[in-house]
Amino acid sequence: MRTTPRRARHGRRTLVAAGLTLATALAGLVVTAPAHSAGSTLAAAAQQSGRYFGTAIAAGRMNDSTYITIANREFDMITAENEMKMDATEPSQNQFSYANGDRILNWALQNNKRVRGHALAWHSQQPGWMQNMSGTQLRNAMLNHVTQVATHYKGKIYAWDVVNEAFQDGSSGAR
Predict the structure, then answer these.
(1) pTM to 2 decimals?
(2) Residue 138 in contact with residue 100, Cβ under 8 Å?
(3) Can you tell me the distance from the alpha carbon of 142 to that of 162, in angstroms, rounded to the nearest whole number?
(4) What is the secondary structure of the chain as a DSSP string?
(5) Which tens digit of pLDDT belongs to each residue from 17-33?
(6) Residues 48-89: tens digit of each pLDDT
(7) How confident is the model over 95-121, as a mean pLDDT?
């Protein structure tokens, strides 16, 4: 199974941690603001203008009470950090694993959060068994993957990032 490079994982963790730290700092500011200003949480403030305020949650951090308390208080949209990506949901061909994605989904729904699915296809977390496929074989594997995962989460996911980074950075457009 292929995993995200250490630097990329660290970067995402840093961004999530920074987002939660920022949320904590901003929440204190919002709570002490006058009643006529923004809502009492970041989510409430966003809702006043028809927006949502979301964060990515890692299943491995769900036992951290500070992390979960801030996520529950400040955010109204939740995205699984890596738990719904290809290598996590189909680590071996036709063998699907939803436990961690379901854990995040169920927590979010129990706490009245919408859930954004991320991502059904992404080159950076393509499972090892799929990496040497091409043509019809790859297309069929992708169709099966998308169908199985989308069917499993049908009616529970608010929106999906179906393909992440479909085009390569730069001007080539290749991927």
Answers:
(1) 0.73
(2) no
(3) 11
(4) -----HHHHHHHHHHHHHHHHHHHHHHHHHHTS-TTSS-SSHHHHHHTTT---EEEE-GGGTT-HHHHHHHHHH-SEEEESSTTSHHHH-SBTTB---HHHHHHHHHHHHTT-EEEEEEEEEGGG--GGGTT--HHHHHHHHHHHHHHHHHHTTTT-SEEEEEES-S-TTTT---
(5) 445 544 544 444 444 44
(6) 888 888 999 999 999 999 999 999 999 999 999 999 999 999
(7) 96
Six-digit token pair at 1? Answer: 């199974």
Is residue 28 packed enough to be buried (19+ CB in 10 Å), middle (13-18) or exposed (0-12)? exposed
* pLDDT (mean) for 29-45: 60
Structure tokens at 24: 């904590």
Q: Which residue has the tokens 């099966």?
A: 144
**CA–CA gap between residue 122 and residue 23 (Å, rounded):** 28
Measure the CA–CA gap between 21 and 10, rounded to whole angstroms: 16
State the residue for tokens 């290749």: 174
Both structure tokens of 165: 């980074």
**Residue at token pair 């999906």:** 160
